[in-house]
Amino acid sequence: MIVVMGHAKLGAGEIDRLAAEMKAQITATRAEEGCLAYGFSRDVLDPDTLIISERWSDNAAIADHFASSHMAVFNAVLAKTNVLELSVKAYENGEERILMGG
Question: Would you say 55 and 39 are in contact if contact means Cβ atoms under 8 Å apart?
């Protein structure tokens, strides 16, 4: 199992503006083969920070996720979003690797 954790610091109001796109992304991703858990949440202390949490069966499932059409759509939406900071990392067997951002 691979655990993915991350955060995205967005400009004021961006999380609310992206609610429909995030819901569509979560729904489509949770239906993917190999997705064990996938969700976004808001940081209680900083409501403009999106917390990303995922669990995947293996690296092939993550690769398929990044190649999916709904991920392409979501990335296109994010490209038009005021993202101030992004960091998404995968953890497997005590090893960390960067998937997106820093």
Answer: no
